[in-house]
Amino acid sequence: MNDLEYESDKEDKCIPRFKKKSEWNPPRSKNDNLESFISSIKTEVKSSVSGKRLRNLSEQESQAINNLKSRDDIVIKQADKGKYETNYFRNNSQDEDMPCALCRNNGSSSSVMIPGRRTCYAGWNMEYTGMLAAGSRSHSASNFICVDNNPEYILSGKAGNDGHLMYVVNTKCGPLPCPPYEDNRQVYCVVCSK
Fold first, then answer.
1. Strand pairing class (111-115; 145-148)
2. Which of 25, 108, 119, 147 is most buried by its number of CB atoms within 10 A?
């Protein structure tokens, strides 16, 4: 998530950039010229951003984000490349082991996983919907699978050994034509049988 800020004259809607100020103070230099230079740079930087800083969100969007932050089933953590990951699956699923599933439906002769859809075509029965997931592109090759929106986990599997990690698939403009697609959107999926 990028933290975009814009100047505003609306004082009452100012959102603090940091929740808690750090108590740490670095040791002072014994060189007075260096301390004077550092102080002048700090003053210059502070004066250049003295305006009110607000995110580029509407009041409803800010309220929705604050509601998401208060939920326990949304997990946001720092990722390897300085971005943020969101846990799109069930609450407390971080580091859980997923069981493999091979579905057999005696009432159907074929099944299909359709990426990019949440509903089946006419004449097909929906088995489940979910998010398209795969291993990271930096790991060994893996298949795209449709992970149920309410996945099950193996009991006592929360060891965190980072065996084969599953990531929600996001769209990327370039390989996909944008429009009609949008960049960095999660891909939904549905499993249908007939």
1. unpaired
2. 147
Question: Residue 133 — φ and ψ, nearest 5°?
Answer: -135, 160
pTM beyond 0.70: no
d(CA 146, CA 140) in angstroms, rounded, equals: 19
Contacts of 9 (CB under 8 A, 6+ apart): 52
Q: Which residues lie across from 78 on neighbouring strands?
A: 84
| Nearest Cα to Cα of residue 48 among 58, 40, 57 | 40
> Which stretch of DSSP H or E encloses residue 5?
strand 5-8
HSE of 26, CA atoms in CB hemisphere, 13 A: 5
Query: In degrees to the nearest 10, what's the CA dihedral of 153, 154, 156, 159?
Result: -80
Encode pLDDT of 74-124 as tens digits.
Answer: 554 433 333 445 556 666 666 677 776 666 677 777 888 999 899 999 999
Structure tokens at 38: 């550092």
CB contact set of 160 (below 8 Å; sequence gap of 6+): 95
